[in-house]
Amino acid sequence: MFWSQGPSSRELAIQALSSVERGYDLLGPKFDHTPFRTPETILGATADALRPLGPFERGLDVCCGTGAGMRVLGPLCHGQVTGVDFSTGMLAQARRAHPYADWVRADVRALPFVEAFDLAVSFGALGHFLPAERLALFDGIYRSLRPGGLFAMPIAAPAPIISGWYWALLGFDVAMRVRNIVWRPPFVMYYRTHPLHAIRNDLTTAGFTVTTLPLTALGRREDDSPRCLLVLARRPSTS
Length: 239
Known about the structure:
One of its GO terms (molecular function) is methyltransferase activity. This is Class I SAM-dependent methyltransferase. By secondary structure, this protein is an alpha/beta fold. The chain has two domains: 1-37, no CATH class; 39-158 and 195-234, Vaccinia Virus protein VP39 (Rossmann fold). The protein is 37% helix and 18% strand. It contains eight helices and seven strands. It has helices at residues 9-16, 20-27, 40-50, 70-76, 88-97, 131-144, 164-182, 196-206; strands at residues 59-62, 81-85, 102-105, 117-121, 145-156, 209-214, 228-234. α1 packs antiparallel against α2 (20-27), α3 packs parallel to α4 (70-76) and α6 (131-144) packs across α8 (196-206).
């Protein structure tokens, strides 16, 4: 699963026993050589789906990590693009890879922006937030967008119970819960705490109008449903 330039088993173990922030600081220099980085196929499908919904001026990547989301924001936004994350190690890599962007270190549960962006995106970050924290995240994104602004986030369809992925993800979440009971500081990373209906409800509570688009380029399941949806949350325009 890992490239030769990626982290060793020892490095991953140290990260897993750290806090989320410290763990990603340690992983930052090698993160792009792990399977945790957002695949190019997802970035490309997201950009293709968003392109007809533009034009966009300023863009924000929430929980930007090493900056993979700039491959979406860069081509779509005519103005400045910004990434925000709380890991200095990940932001250092993002700055090297995308020097044209602005990079802000902040806790995304308290985003420091007000009506500054037309488009916000986030990739693979929701597992780092407990369900009770998710509304604060969405409230901050809402405040960060200009009236009429759009927040987009791809989400995979849940694995069927008969698949190996279902049991692998369930096992991972159980292992993380046990780890967080017996070890401090906690490392919050779960795959099964953010189903689509819960995301939709929290986005609606935050004030967004929520729709979804199938990312058909990423394939379909055996029942012909899409493997991945793009959640689109629009901040209403003011009159």
